[in-house]
C-alpha cells in the first residue's frame, strides 16, 4: 500500500435529509472537515465510514465565507489512519493530484489530474484549480498529492465550470483548526461572513462589524417534512437514531440486525418499506417460489427482482395522517424486525445466499 492509498479510510461520506457529500476525518483532533454547504441547515448529521459503519456528529464550526464546516463525531475512530497537510506555498502548477470522495452519493471514488492553477481567484477567494473531476458529492472531500498529503478541500459549488475542479487551500482549514481554542466546549458557532468573528448565538447583525447576517441560512435548522415527522417516530420503537438513518429527502436506510431496510417515498404517492433479503439459490427453486407465493408474512409482501428476494410494505401517503397512523407505524417497525428474521430463514431453509449489503458480521 502506497502513501496515497493509506489515507483512503479517512475519507468519509456525510448524509443528511438534503443529500450527501464527502468529508475528511482528522484523527489528531478527532474532528471531521467538510464543506459548509454539505451540512447547511443541520446541527447534527451522520457520516458513513468505508467499512459501512454509520455514526452521528455535531456541527461545531461553520464558516460560510470559505465554505468550511468542522464536525465533532460522537465516537472516536481509533482504526482510522493519520493524515497530514501540505501548505499552499509548496504547491506548483502541473503537480499531480487526486480528488477523493463520494460523487453523486456513489461508493468511494478517486479521480486524478494535475494542478492547473495554484492561485485561482473566484468570488474573492483563492482556490487551487485542477482538471481532476469534482462532481456533486465530492464536496468536502480532500484534494491530495501523490504522497497522500492533504493540500485542499474540494468544492463543487462552481457548477458551471466545465472540466475544472476547485479546492480551498488547506491553509485556510488549518486557520480554522487553530482557532478552536475560542470554542473549548465545541458548541455550534458561526464565523461572520464579513469579519470572521465567531458567533455563538443567533443574531441579526454581527456585534463585531455590524454586518447583516442570513439568519435562516446560518442559524436555523431545516424543518422536517410531515412524512419525516411520521417516519422518524418509528425509530423510537427500533431504538435507532433517525439521524443515522437519513440518506436524503424522505429517504432512510438502516440495518436491523443483518438486514438492510429502506423507507422511502415513491412518486409522491406512496411510502415504501423494503428490505433486500437473499439471492435466489441454484436448487429447490420450485419449493422456494411456492413459499414466496403463499405469502405467509402478511401484511407484508415477498417478491423477487433481479434474482434477489425482497420483503416490502406499501402505504398511500394519504393514509399516514388518518386514523390508521399508529397501525401503519407499527407495521413499519414490524417490517424491519421481520426482515431480520426472514433473511436468516431463507439462508437456513433454502440455502439462499445473503444479499450483498447484508451485515453478516453481526449474525449469530
Structural description of this entry:
The protein is of the alpha+beta class. Among the domains are: about 90-170, Thrombin, subunit H; about 225-360, 2-Layer Sandwich (Yope Regulator, Chain: A). Helices cover about 20% and strands about 35% of the residues. The chain contains 9 helices and 20 strands. It has helices spanning about 5, 35-40, 170-180, 215-220, 225-230, 235, 240-245, 285-295, 325-350, and strands spanning about 10-15, 20-25, 30-35, 45-50, 55-65, 70-75, 95-100, 110-120, 125-130, 140-145, 150-155, 165-170, 190, 200, 245-250, 250-255, 260-265, 270-280, 300-305, 310-315. It has a 6-stranded antiparallel barrel with strand order 1-2-3-6-5-4. A 6-stranded antiparallel beta barrel has the order 7-8-9-12-11-10. It has a 6-stranded antiparallel β-sheet with strand order 15-16-17-18-20-19. A hairpin with a 2-residue loop joins strand 8 and strand 9 (about 125-130). The mean pLDDT is about 95.
Q: Count all strands and give the number.
A: 20
- What is the C-level CATH assignment of the domain at 226-362? Alpha Beta
As a percent range, the share of helical residues equals: 10-25%
Shape: globular
Spatial separation of the terminal alpha carbons = 33 Å
How much of the polypeptide forms β-strand, as a percent range? 25-35%
Rg calc: 23 Å
- Number of helical regions: 9
Low-confidence regions? none
Tell me which CATH architecture of the domain at 226-362 applies here.
2-Layer Sandwich
User: Strand pairing plus helix content: what structural class?
Assistant: alpha+beta
CATH topology of the domain at 226-362: Yope Regulator, Chain: A
User: Which strand order spans the largest sheet, edge to edge or round the barrel?
Assistant: 1-2-3-6-5-4
Mean of all residue-level pLDDT scores? 94
Strand count, sense and barrel status of the largest sheet are:
6 strands, antiparallel, barrel
SSE ordering: HEEEHEEEEEEEEEHEEHHHHEEEEHEEH
Amino acid at each position: 500500500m502506497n502513501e496515497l492509498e493509506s489515507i483512503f479510510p479517512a475519507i468519509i461520506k456525510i448524509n443528511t435529509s438534503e443529500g450527501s457529500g464527502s468529508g475528511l476525518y482528522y484523527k489528531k483532533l478527532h474532528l471531521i472537515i467538510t464543506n459548509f454547504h454539505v451540512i447547511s441547515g443541520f446541527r447534527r448529521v451522520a457520516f458513513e465510514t468505508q467499512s459501512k459503519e454509520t455514526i452521528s456528529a455535531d456541527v461545531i464550526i461553520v464558516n460560510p465565507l470559505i465554505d468550511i464546516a468542522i464536525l465533532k463525531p460522537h465516537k472516536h475512530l481509533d482504526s482510522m489512519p493519520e493524515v497530514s497537510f501540505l501548505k499552499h506555498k509548496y504547491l506548483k502548477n502541473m503537480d499531480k493530484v487526486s480528488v477523493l470522495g463520494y460523487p453523486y452519493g456513489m461508493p468511494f471514488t478517486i479521480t486524478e489530474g494535475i494542478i492547473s492553477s495554484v492561485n485561482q481567484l473566484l468570488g474573492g477567494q483563492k482556490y487551487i484549480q485542477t482538471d481532476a473531476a469534482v462532481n456533486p458529492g465530492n464536496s468536502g472531500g480532500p484534494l491530495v498529492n501523490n504522497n497522500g498529503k492533504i493540500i485542499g478541500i474540494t468544492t463543487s459549488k462552481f457548477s458551471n465550470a466545465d472540466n475544472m475542479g476547485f479546492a480551498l487551500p488547506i491553509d485556510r482549514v488549518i486557520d480554522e483548526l487553530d482557532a478552536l481554542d475560542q470554542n473549548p466546549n465545541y458548541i455550534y458557532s458561526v464565523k461572520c461572513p464579513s469579519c470572521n468573528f465567531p458567533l455563538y448565538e443567533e443574531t441579526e447583525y454581527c456585534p463585531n462589524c455590524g454586518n447583516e447576517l442570513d439568519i435562516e441560512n446560518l442559524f436555523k435548522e431545516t424543518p422536517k417534512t410531515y412524512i419525516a415527522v411520521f417516519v422518524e417516530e418509528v425509530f423510537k420503537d427500533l431504538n435507532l437514531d433517525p439521524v443515522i438513518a437519513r440518506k436524503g429527502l424522505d429517504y432512510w436506510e438502516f440495518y436491523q440486525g443483518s438486514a438492510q431496510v429502506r423507507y422511502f417515498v415513491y412518486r409522491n404517492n406512496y411510502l415504501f418499506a423494503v428490505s433486500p433479503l437473499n439471492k435466489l439459490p441454484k436448487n429447490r427453486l420450485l419449493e422456494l417460489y411456492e413459499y414466496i407465493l403463499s405469502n405467509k408474512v402478511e401484511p407484508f409482501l415477498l417478491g423477487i427482482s433481479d434474482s434477489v428476494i425482497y420483503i416490502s410494505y406499501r402505504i398511500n401517503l394519504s393514509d399516514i395522517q388518518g386514523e390508521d397512523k399508529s397501525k401503519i407505524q407499527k407495521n413499519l417497525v414490524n417490517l424491519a424486525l421481520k426482515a431480520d428474521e426472514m433473511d436468516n430463514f431463507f439462508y437456513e431453509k433454502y440455502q439462499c445466499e445473503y444479499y450483498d449489503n447484508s451485515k453478516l458480521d453481526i449474525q449469530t
